[in-house]
UniProtKB/TrEMBL annotation:
Ranges of Polar residues composition bias in the record: 11-22
Top-rank taxon, per record: Eukaryota
Signal peptide span: none
Region (Disordered) residue spans: 1-33
Gene3D superfamilies in alphabetical order: Tetratricopeptide repeat domain
InterPro entries: TPR-like_helical_dom_sf
Bias (Basic residues) ranges: 1-10
Official protein name in the record: Trafficking protein particle complex subunit 12
């Protein structure tokens, strides 16, 4: 019986056979997990280094466009998010013993700033499950008052994001229901009206009090929790209309307008991603084509577009879009296109050529892993194992690398279980970098 190897970000369900490694087109349980991780780091962690630097101050700056003048002194009762029964019990039963760490619970007399500082440190280290546990403990403790709007939303967002990053997306989806309907009037407040303003005749729209990252994440999680993908599509379109309305405001600062443009572009990509998850590839293709025609895409958006085009099997369009990249970007996507077409021998040569480019060292780990996947598909099992093990020794330990190496162990040895446990020990002894989830599940090691 063939071992279970996963290929996440599938090019197309009909364009190639199902495979079982995690390569460059792979899609984890949550396809936007990397973006959630990025938001957690950029929005919640602004300090790294000594413990004295973790003050908890970053939890007040989750959304740079939050209506500060409206939130200050606003009386909103968010006690429904502080209820103990909102939060599931978390355990480390599914985590290998070598990777387990003790849950941190605030003491009865501990100051809020101290708990927030500890939470920042856990996030910076990559202990996402421990951070999720601490968020729940703080939210249900007397330290947080029901009207501390910014703090409650920041902690709730961090809880959901960390659950997702630690492989507990279903729990996060269930807990996101506590927000109920984010489009209800409860979450909107009217701006303070200034009669002296010159543009007093302009329409004034209510402002949402929840931070933007939480709204975007909650839309996806609630669509999972309620088992309704169309709910997610509708939610993205709804906040997309709000983003367009903000962009059209004549009194908006240019820097803020650019942020709203980036948010709108991001929503478009997320919509296509959700359509792919729903299996509606035709609608995804039309939506993506519409985005390419109407939105002036930056480099990141174009990169995401190419990956989505490969996900729906539209290889020709992806190749045309790659023409717009510079030499470095074109070189990166050339082997991806070869893999999408099943030309793994050619992809091996192209990945090796990329590794010889001296100015791409920051991408070496991902390139090497993709090389190992191609080596595996071309029957060069020993070479694939050598490449993956060298990455672990470097040291690297991202999720797809761990999964792929565990798969190679299953294919090449009768003692795969012992080899996997050795892999667990090797990763447990790696230095903490803060770029990888440390609370890894047994499933990542195929244990």
């Amino acid at each position: 019986m063939e071992p279970a190897i996963k290929h996440g970000r599938n090019i197309s369900k009909s364009s190639r056979p199902r495979s079982s490694t995690k390569g460059p087109l792979d899609q984890p349980e949550d396809p936007l997990e990397a973006e959630v991780s990025s938001v957690v780091r950029t929005s919640m962690i602004q300090c790294t280094g000594d413990h004295e630097m973790y003050t908890g101050a970053s939890f007040s700056s989750l959304d740079p466009l939050a209506p500060e003048e409206l939130l200050s002194g606003l009386e909103k009762d968010l006690s429904f998010l502080l209820r103990y029964d909102n939060y599931h019990s978390l355990s480390q039963v599914d985590i290998p013993h070598a990777l387990r760490a003790e849950f941190f619970s605030p003491k009865s007399d501990e100051a809020l700033a101290s708990s927030l500082g500890t939470l920042e440190r856990l996030l910076a280290e990559g202990h996402f499950l421990l951070a999720a546990y601490l968020c729940g403990a703080v939210l249900t403790s007397p330290m947080v008052s029901h009207n501390e709007i910014k703090l409650i939303f920041a902690l709730f967002y961090t809880r959901l994001a960390c659950l997702e990053l630690s492989g507990n997306t279903i729990i996060a989806a269930q807990e996101s229901k506590a927000l109920e309907d984010l489009s209800s009037t409860f979450y909107y407040v009217d701006p303070k009206h200034k009669a002296t303003e010159a543009n007093d005749h302009q329409p004034v729209y209510p402002r949402h009090i929840a931070p933007w990252p939480l709204r975007v994440l909650a839309i996806r999680l609630q669509s999972i929790g309620f088992g309704d993908s169309r709910r997610g599509i509708g939610g993205l379109y709804e906040i997309g209309l709000e983003a367009r309305r903000e962009i059209m405001r004549p009194d908006l600062d240019p820097a803020e307008r650019e942020i709203w443009r980036q948010r709108l572009s991001d929503l478009g990509i997320r919509t296509v991603n959700l359509l792919i998850e729903m299996g509606d590839l035709k609608a995804a293709r039309r939506s993506l084509e519409s985005l390419r025609q109407t939105e002036p895409a930056n480099e990141v958006t174009r990169l995401r577009s190419v990956l989505l085009l490969l996900s729906i099997g539209n290889i020709d369009t992806a190749r045309q879009l790659c023409v717009d990249f510079d030499a470095a970007g074109d070189a990166l996507f050339k082997p991806l296109l070869s893999m999408a077409e099943g030309r793994y021998d050619a992809a091996v040569l192209e990945w090796r050529a990329l590794l010889d480019i001296k100015d791409r060292k920051s991408d070496d780990a991902i390139i090497s892993q993709n090389l190992a996947v191609c080596l595996l598909y071309t029957g060069q099992l020993s070479d694939a194992r050598q490449v993956l093990e060298s990455l672990v020794q470097t040291p690297h330990s991202f999720s797809s690398l761990v999964f792929n190496l565990a798969t190679v162990y299953e294919l090449c040895s009768d003692k795969s279980v012992q080899l996997k446990h050795g892999l667990v020990e090797a990763i447990a002894n790696q230095p903490v970098t803060g770029y990888t989830n440390l609370d890894r599940l047994n499933a990542e090691f195929k244990l």
